[in-house]
Amino acid sequence: MDSLPLYRQLAAHYVDAIHTGSLKQGDKLPSLRSLMRLHGISLSTALQLCRTMESDGWVEARDRSGYFVRRPRRLAIAPMEEPPAGVPPDPAQYVGIHAKVSDFVARRRQLPEKLNFSIARGAPELYPAEALRNAMTRMLRQQPDMLTVAAPLKGHRQFREVLAQRSLRVGMAISPEDILVTNGCIEALNLALRAVAQPGDTVAVESPTFYGLLQVLESLGMRALEIPTSPQTGLSIEALELAIRTYDNIKAVVVVPHLQNPLGSVMPDTHKARLAQLCERHEIPLIEDDTYSELVDAPTPPRALKSWDAGGNVIHCASLHKILAPGLRLGWIAAGRWHARVEMLKYAQTRNNEGLSQSGAGLFMATGAYDRHLRHLRGCLKTQREQTADAIAGYFPAGTRINLPPGGLQLWVELPGRLSSSRVFDAALAERIVVAPGTLFSNSSRFDHYLRINCGWPYGEAVDTGLRRLGQIIETLMSRGAGAAAAQLPVRPMSPPAPIQPPQARRSQSSSARAA
To answer: What distance in Å separates the CA atoms of residue 103 and residue 233, rounded to the nearest whole number?
Structure first.
């Protein structure tokens, strides 16, 4: 930062104030004379500061009034449309995700990546590594034999007690005995599905949905019935009701009610209540993946879907992978009336988890430092999401749509002109930029013109340069037509990063319309 020109350093200072909310839309920047006095700069430097912020799209000049914070460009992007809910799901679209995911993973590993926008987790520095390390060291001192004595099958008692206590905040009333610790949320979902369904059975899922869930279903020999899902309110209750009337063999429903992956939608309480009642009425087990609720931008997390569970029909699954430590594969399941079956399946499948990570995490989570960490994490992710959305608004072609979720790690981007995200993936990968194409999130081809973009890494010059280049790739592919092969796109090395942190404004007439 010190190597930047002074006016750039000061511009970055005021952009940070906009991101943190210290300066809001419509607020006036200090006058030129005030800037000169506040920072000890010349009139020329003060003018450069203001004009730079204006050209970058952060402020607008008003005749004889000064410079004012403008509406963020991301708010000018058209919102995504709601999916149709009155058409029964296609019964032919059940399986086939393994080949697509395997191809994605294999090709991603062919070249050393420079930028990875495809993942859905935060940067290591966003998590309390030192505090967790100290907690585990303390537990080893207290219990030196922890590494040589097997942990209980259900999981470490203190950890389960902390989880039970924190469940009260989201409307659940479960005891430590109701909780079974798992190897991340993916094992919890695996156990839940095996408990309530058999190979050949049909399971209703959101569409689009996390490709890991589609992989689990395929590996279990089950069939995924994709239900239209709103970018705002989550799974369509009306579409699910229609599917239940149309197909009499739905054995379970799996949903991510909070910050759904990849859409980022948050299901309203009224929808959660209706969904729980609908599944209870039709005796269809409801499996809740609650991985992301602590990342919702709110003082307290939203109510869990299981809080509307009247008879043990909701199976609650969650993990710490996204919110506390990606390196700890710590998840859990509260399986309701299927608890005994899940416990035996866990015993048969993987036995007990190791205890050190559970005890250390439980010790840390029992302190106020855990909630302070969550507040800090939510604040950082909010800033990074907004910066990434601003960059997409400035760099991607006109017609791009984006869903702006109220929290979380990712953005769901609709490409203009129904451009194939697979072609974008191919062209970007050639430049060692990795994106997650929409084809991964459905067994159908309905989401081929979407991308999931990660916002978990702090926004800096490398991220800005990568998004700018990604916008150029998309624009080039569009100009050549949707039928042009991505392999024909000239491979250009990434240019050196511009010495700024906020995205540059596009200067051509056609590009200036992209923020409109």
So the answer is: 32
484 φ, ψ to 5°? -70, 140
Per-residue pLDDT at 181 exceeds 70: yes
* Helix (H) and strand (E) counts in the chain: 16, 16
Secondary structure of 216-279 in the HEC alphabet? HHHHCCCEEEEEEEECCCEECHHHHHHHHHHCCCEEEEEECCECCCCCCCECCHHHHHHHHHHH
- What phi and psi values does residue 247 have, to the nearest 5 degrees? -120, 130
Span 85-137, pLDDT tens digits: 777 666 545 456 778 888 887 887 777 778 999 999 999 999 999 999 999 99
Question: What separation in angstroms does the CA of 211 have from each of 218, 329, 421?
Answer: 11, 18, 15
Q: Is the confidence at residue 328, as pLDDT, over 70?
A: yes
Domain that holds residue 441: 84-124+372-515
Residue 156's CATH number: 3.40.640.10
Residues 234 and 268 in one domain: yes
Answer whether residue 413 is part of any domain: yes
| pLDDT at residue number 2 | 53
Residue 310 has pLDDT above 80, yes or no: yes
CA 165, CA 436: separation in Å to the nearest integer? 36
Is 312 part of a structural domain of the chain? Answer: yes
Enter the tokens of residue 17.
Answer: 């104030």
Q: Find out whether 185 and 320 touch, Cβ atoms under 8 Å.
A: no
Domain boundary among 368, 389, 410: 368
Beta bridge partners of 433: 115
Which CATH number fits the domain that encloses residue 414?
A: 3.90.1150.10
Do 317 and 453 share a structural domain? no
Rounded Cα distance between 121 and 481, Å, is 34
Please state the rounded mean pLDDT for residues 54-58: 76
